[in-house]
Design brief:
Six copies of one chain form a homohexamer. Chain A has about 250 residues and is an alpha/beta fold. The first copy, chain A, has a single domain, classed as Rossmann fold (3-Layer(aba) Sandwich). Chain A is about 40% helix and about 10% strand. The first copy, chain A, contains seven helices and five strands. Chain A has helices at about 10-20, 40-55, 85-100, 115-130, 140-150, 165-175, 220-240; strands spanning about 1-5, 20-25, 60, 105-110, 135. In chain A, strand 4 (about 105-110), helix 4 (about 115-130) and strand 5 (about 135) form a beta-alpha-beta unit. In chain A, helix 2 crosses helix 6 (about 165-175) and helix 6 (about 165-175) crosses helix 7. The radius of gyration of chain A is 18 Å and the shape is globular. The interface between A and B is large, with 53 and 53 residues.
């Protein structure tokens, strides 16, 4: 694995001489995650998954993008958002630059719900113009492993925000950033059309929590991350194999 | 100082209740810096300066943007660039989001030459639309302290790339990332119109070095950073005072 | 139900005086659907679903958009595509115009896979700017009813193109446009990374068929459409109720 | 003639093997046309003209675009408008896609005044980039035949909206959509600068009518359409001949 | 009349205190006009007309825009063109700035065929957003007076390029810039579809002339200009009166 | 020197046959310059410098762009501004058109502070896409010669607006446009952060003057212009030589 932020250019040249040139980009966000989790939660998680994935694949790890499309959480302080167009532009520019630099594929490990549309839009645009393949991963297997690991109910199907899952993951990655004393359970009454249309998230919960973070443990977090990395690896290997890059 | 990446939303709320809301954004790049310095050199430096500045001002530190407008160094591997428009969009979006979130000013600590135009463009656009003031700092005082600290000549007036200055700064910030054994001096013959028009940088130097990094020391780096932080603080305080924010 | 294409302006005025103003837009495509189905297959289907939905809800039916984002099928003749940005612009413009015209919500019945990203992008943009809610439906319940109705296997999970399902639907809507004599089964060997990343569809199948259309019947088509309309109605009613529009 | 909406891809392949590939696109609008005419009046008319033209030329008929740039009629309910930029994008995208698909020319039969500028803009853009020729027709000969057929005066020179001409045309195309009992004459007093600068139309007439639709007959409509088709055919043949496409 | 280029700001303030604030903008081009006329022909003509118009109306004359959308003449040297989008942006920006500065209307005297679409597009955009009225004049009455004054035939109906008309106009405005010794007649055989679709002009004529400039005289030019100014004045007065600005 | 506005196309062809094709573009503005100087001050100055430069280099002089990015002076009447994006588009379009027309380089003589960012942005964009070199000159040597010539103090370091320098320059170029009787000295108290961030200029001075224009003379103006032209020539020759164009 080559961590690009720490490498010098001859290291990259050497890596690319012997490997197909697969870059892995953690795309995070700066977004409220309740009173107990850091605003960088999405970035920490995406970076952790991307880092392990890069190790497994002996790929190139890009530094994380620390901001995402988080308009839906702007109602709570500290959320600082890019527009969806800008997220797509960042991803598209990096893919094109990597391509010019001799890379063969870009894998994006996305850590934020709001980035899904713009990242897929950038991936499609690269495909349309015949650019390098851009593969966007949204924590494959998360719901599955969440169902196995969680002791508390989901606030809504597929909704995972500042809850037992996310808290466990941050406890596994950066425990010093978790305020255990501030953990509260919050199961806000969601509008009947939640999940059916685009709506802001933060106004729905006074705490910014959607679930019960209290039973979170680093062990659970480790299990979750390991499973997501396993699933991510499986998918990326399948894609790279199909592309003749492995 | 509040490090936003590590804070939770109630910390931000508390900070903003008692302070004017000054956000500091390190804007870096992923760019070749010779065989001995990491590709994240600009990000490391901008982050270090921004962090100290935030401490001095008891301001809010944003996570660094790790990519910049580095087309001029794409000729050497590992340089991964955003377009100039995208750099402007990132800065403009963050300024607007901070404004919606109750912040009163954004200070950008820019670590990359190619970001200057787009960051100033974003700052002007914020001024034109009556948004919060965006102040872009390009290492004020760097040439001055460089002249005092350097033992080796500049490759060109104002040109500071993988040389004694930058190497000293990284030695002070992240010494483990510096390959001392790879240091070479390179004073490429520059075209007669160097600095007079926009041109790519990397093709001019086979090593990516512009100067002599060998006499670099962490002590020199510390002196340089300290001076840049002093000058930055002086400028920001003057601006905040004029804006009634201090 | 008010079919806008056939109505005159006083009819609309009367409708809006007594109802909340819900507009339903079928968004189709002009895209190859094998040798036996018309290029307007997606538009016919979206229009049929939208029409019944409008009847159930006593809502306003917009005329169908007959083109979509179908770059992935351009390899076969007759596919005529809009760019993704243009699809988003069409949807966004119509939502904004409907809003200025006194409508309270826009429901998009999407008939083409390639429209999903840009339509959701437009829906999000409307939410971000505080515009009327835009609800994008992608044939809810289709896989479920497909599993119940189909006698032939899927070419791939979730892949529904010129197969038994789509052929049945067109047989139910516009049987005269189906070339029964041209029906062929085609289960192309899909690349191992099919469905994992953005890729063109048409190059994968020489016929443009993905499955076996031969056992298709209008009765199956009717069952499929009815189920999708039921599910669509259920979802829209839930949203309208949550919005206080029913 | 090949109606693309009804054709399957092998039909298009066969057509293009033996003919030069001329596509005809009716570009309509959803726009108020008085109390007696349907909102789709412009689309119906453009489609009728385009269809006959395609028959005469044995060309390919595209499905109609049912929305146009109708901001100037938004004051009356049911008018749903695209922006001018979006109209240009739709036309430009279709031209480029047709070009990639092997077509040699695009003829646009425009049914709405507001589409003129953006369609011509798209046509010019195609010419500038060396794309296929895009020929925009705005009902050639309409004023001429109107002068011959009309029994009632024009509301203003060149102004043809929900009057005897348009009503006759819809009576010839889709008589069931005309509310004969709602026909009223309306000769609003137009501002002195009418026709001299861009201005909204709908606010000038309480009924949305500009003229007297009452003497309209399907026979008149047929004569009008026939003449416009004749003139259109003459022009297109001249262009195709000059392009070596006939 | 106030010539803005020569005025100082208090002169403008005084003018606006007592008059409605009508600005007149000559929009020209830098475009080949045969071997005998200067590349600035369109700008000279637009400026001459705009200047007299401003005098008649006691309005404010803006400095001329000396470049236009002249892609169709790029085949001959010295033609330097803006894109159509840029022409629209220039006009739109000036209208918006004039509006912020207290002006009530903008009259554009357009001197170049290629500017028509983008200027009208900008005028419409101003109308759509409720901005100040933008009136675009394309030499009203030119064909009429041309028919009366010309001794030589038109190269094509409505085609007026480096011919007797344009040469007469420049002889009246800036005789020193006309090369009498280089005048040649050129009636190129035009393609059968000339004027029916967007096409480049310059490739059609080896000389860049379309007609016979030889009988041109300054007296004819004066008559032409005077008539165009008369017609322009009549139109503008009608518009200003309708707007309540006179 | 070839003045493009006055040349006909064969003159350009002849010029380009024997010379490398260097175009010089004066980029001005329409901006308040105190009660005594014309709004076209920046354009007059840029044109004068560009003209002499073109003579020295036997280059091609383009007509001046008479509008610039002057939002910062909109508070005083008569300032009419383009947006920064539009200034960049004008410059970028002209560079690309010149390139298509066989020119080898574009030199922009910029007369307005607000144009700096967008012109450099356009120059960089041309470099990134591999277009012809675009060299932007901002009156090189102005401060130097100002220090030598001025008898009155600067209103702020580097601030030169309607003061002794600018007034002297206009006295040398177009003395009839200077209102000697309106000259006033104005040394407004500038905010403490003046020059440190983007801010509007005009609101800072009631007169629009920043300095003391009264000791201005045409002789001083001539010295200033001559020095700026000398410095400009020196720089352009260096660039052209490096590019192999001299």
């Amino acid at each position: 694995m080559l961590e690009l932020a720490h490498a010098a250019w001859p290291d990259v040249a050497a890596h690319l001489r012997e490997r197909p040139g697969v870059a892995i980009l953690p795309f995070g966000a700066l977004e409220q995650h309740g009173p107990h989790l850091p605003l960088s939660t999405d970035t920490l998680q995406a970076d952790a998954v991307a880092r392990r994935l890069a190790e497994r694949l002996d790929a190139v790890l890009l530094p994380a993008v620390a901001f995402g499309n988080t308009w839906s959480n702007e109602a709570l302080p500290g959320t600082v958002s890019l527009g969806a167009d800008t997220v797509a532009a960042v991803c598209g520019d990096l893919a094109a630059s990597l391509e010019r630099g001799g890379f063969a594929a870009l894998v994006v490990v996305n850590g934020d719900f709001g980035n899904r549309l713009p990242l897929q839009t950038a991936a499609e645009a690269s495909a349309v113009r015949g650019g390098i393949p851009v593969l966007v991963l949204d924590y494959p297997g998360l719901t599955e492993i969440g169902d196995r690991v969680k002791e508390t109910p989901w606030a809504a199907p597929g909704l995972c925000h500042a809850d037992e899952i996310e808290t466990s993951m941050v406890l596994a990655i950066a425990p010093a950033l978790v305020h255990r004393d501030r953990m509260v359970a919050d199961y806000p009454e969601l509008p009947a059309d939640f999940g059916l249309r685009q709506m802001a998230l933060a106004p729905l919960s006074a705490t910014g929590v959607f679930g019960d973070p209290r039973p979170a443990t680093p062990e659970k977090g480790e299990r979750i991350i390991a499973h997501v990395v396993d699933e991510s690896e499986r998918i990326v290997r399948r894609v790279l194999s199909a592309l003749g890059l492995s």
